[in-house]
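Handout, tutorial session.
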Amino acid sequence: MTLRALFQPHRIVMMVLFAIFVIWCAMSLRWDWIPQYAPLALEGLWRTVWILVVTCILGFLLAIPLGLAQAIGPWYLAVPARVFCTVIRGTPLLLQIWLLYYGLGSLFPQIPWIRGSDLWPYLRQAWPYAVLALTLSYAGYEGEVMRGAFSSVNKGQLEAANSFGMPRFTMFRRIWLPQAIRNVLPTLGGETILQLKATPLVATITVVEIYAVSSRVRSDMLIVYEPLLLLALFYLIIAGIITLLFRKFENSVPTR
């Protein structure tokens, strides 16, 4: 964005109003609680970020075969993939989190070999179920996106690669998948921001992320607006970073 575009009248008015709001918040609201809760807030912020990164990466890796199965797969692969995406997209994420946590979480303690395994110290905690739920949710939405992305790739390029004897996996890795990802990069950026805004739901199963920290401040200090405003600022900063990263990635990907 150029300086001329930045200093247009409506943007100047927005910046002035924002500056006035920031000054009012700094002078009128109560911020003395921040030093006490700063370590917990940093821990919650870190947990929010790593949950977001891990679930988006794992979810996207799962979305690729889901989209491919729906685009070209035989019916016995396409139908389960379509059913999975439909169920995930058609049910609330909060319900999915609760089903996994209160369902699997209450079932595993009744299985002796699981209680005696090395995985039990992790399975008794809440965060694995939160990661699993968010991963499946991201995969369900992105699986449908990747289905459209695979279908939109120019078939002439695939036919040309096939006529030259290029192995199918090589053709998928070098032509089909990169072009499909390039076509959906703006959508992936938006879905990643939506995933960020879904992370507060894991606080309902006792995962202490940044939203849970703000809730604790409200309950301990009886302060309502200040932690919520700071929480909104954190989310805006993270969303802005995600937008910039995806925009940079889009600009670095060749158009042909």
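The second record follows below. Compare its token runs with those of the first.
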Amino acid sequence: MEADARPVSKASAWREARNVAARARLDRALPDIFPPLVLRHALAQPLLPPTPRLAVESYWRVHVLRADRLARGLAARSGTPEGWTWRLGAAEEGLGMGFRVPPAPFRERAFARGKGHCCVCGQPVYRFGWHVDLWGAGAPNRNAGWHAACVAAWKLWNAASDHVRILKARQRHRCAETGKRLLRTAEVDHRVPLYRVWREHRTAPWPVLLGYWGLPNLQVVNRTAHAGKCALEAGERASHRRALP
């Protein structure tokens, strides 16, 4: 006797129909050359991205730590623009309004490389926001201003706490300060606080500076350990202010 077939929910039926349509659209738009890791990732998603561009963006959102390493590597390839110094100022000029915003010389009007170049790392942007000219176009995509990887990295640098789950897993769920198991309330912290980066390291080469916002300077600590570290840093800042003439 055959077992009764389980009823298909409306959500499952909708998802299946949606994925069939998305796969057909993706196949039509997919070029002969496409990053295989990105395609494999796309086809494994519960909701398939319907275009190659969305597939690339989805890949880097999930692999944000790879995006961070790549973005800093591309920045090292560009190097510090001649005459650039880290300054704070108005956002409309491309400057950060505070030291918590990572420096981005290619977002400043004086150093911007124009269309077809990433405003984060300064390198050429190719099809689908990719960082390598896999298609032999010989020229960047003039309609693009970001690498998809640099978008993901920029979001990590500016809101690292949004990626606490990934950072926890990388630390094997152990507190970076105490070595104890990370609790659900654990928080993301910068090993070298950003106020010290501004105060002590602002003259470092720009690609080196980015490391203070990226993975080399990020850690996850339990809330009590974080509170103690912040208290020590607040005391150090107060002492520094009192020592100023």
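Points raised in discussion: DSSP finds nine helices and two strands in the chain.
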